[in-house]
Amino acid sequence: MKEKIDGILAELKSEIDSVKTNQDVTNIKAKYVGKSGYVTELSKLMGSVPNEEKKEVGQMVNALRESVNELIASKEKEINDAILNEKLEKESIDITLPGKKIKRGSLHPMTRITEEFEDLFVSMGYTVFEGPELESDENCFQKLNLPKGHPARDAQDTFYLKDEVENYLLRSQTSTAQVRAMESNTDKGPIRIVCPGKVYRRDEDATHSHQFMQIEGLVIDKNISMADLKGTLEVMMKRVLGEKTEVRFRPSYFPFTEPSVEVDVTCFKCGGKGCALCKQTGWIEVLGAGMVHPNVLSMSGYDPSVYQGFAFGTGMDRMAMFKYAIPDIRTIYGNDIRFIEQFDRKDVD
């Protein structure tokens, strides 16, 4: 048995130098340690070995198997290393060549202004509340004190669903989310929310678009006054347009608030001195606001003798135009990468 073992090992050593490829390695594995290989056949002969010799012969067969596997594994590694080195030689990279420039992305100005508003109001204890863009006429107008036939609807002419003119439309204001928030508040307790989102109107020119972004705020609680509204808007405008910004209220009319105000801020370009942008007045109108009308509270289940509230709304597109000096609202939605990539350089922080 020892002679057979020595003969198998000697034969392998003489053949191993002729192995040049991975296929040769596979073949020699099959020849020596495969199902019908020399070492496997030798192991099958252990049954015919006398009992007193089995231990010694078994140790020699195991030693042979280990030697064969080591020789084959060493040759396989040698072949694979040679293949890898050849690939590295052929596929080498010249690290001195200039790399490809990766274009750096930038957040869209509307994303920036939306996140800025949301961060501000969340820090003041508000909740961000979003409603659907497809709304009922009831939520968009009627529950905001704009019954059918009301002339103020003309200023918010929007897009109605075909064959559903009297029922569903693309919302013309985010105030519809306020209605939903009041109705979903089943205990009719205090509310403090901001509602950002898309709205739609039949306008399109340099300062108006058929689709634009609004953000509205709603606060309902006991003993709410115009002073609370003014303080909130001052914080908001100073944060978005700069600490030197001043706020001015002018009486106005909105069906869903009473009293209602138009809100102006000092011109961010001239600081209130007067320029072409503000038409020499020193002021720019930015939003509408007011105390929530008692009818609106009542229609959403609130008792106006117990609760009061204020609401405000502004176009975020317009605020972005003011903040980033964008001359035409249509460029905001033009998907021009040259326009969007500028805004990383415009944020001070």
Structural commentary:
The protein is α+β, with helices and mostly antiparallel strands and 349 residues long. The chain has 11 helices and 9 strands. The strands form 2 sheets. The chain has a 7-stranded mixed β-sheet with strand order 1-4-5-9-8-7-6, sandwiched between helices. The protein has a two-stranded antiparallel sheet with strand order 2-3. Helix 1 (2-16) packs parallel to helix 4 (51-90) and helix 5 packs across helix 10 (316-324). The longest helix has 40 residues, at 51-90. The model has no long low-confidence stretch (mean pLDDT 85).
Principal-axes geometry comes out as elongated
CATH fold label of the largest domain: BirA Bifunctional Protein, domain 2
Helix residue percentage:
25-40%
Number of H- or I-type helical stretches: 11
Low-confidence stretches: none
Give the tags.
349 residues; alpha+beta; BirA Bifunctional Protein, domain 2; two-stranded antiparallel ribbon; 11 helices; 19% strand
In short:
By secondary structure, this protein is of the alpha+beta class.
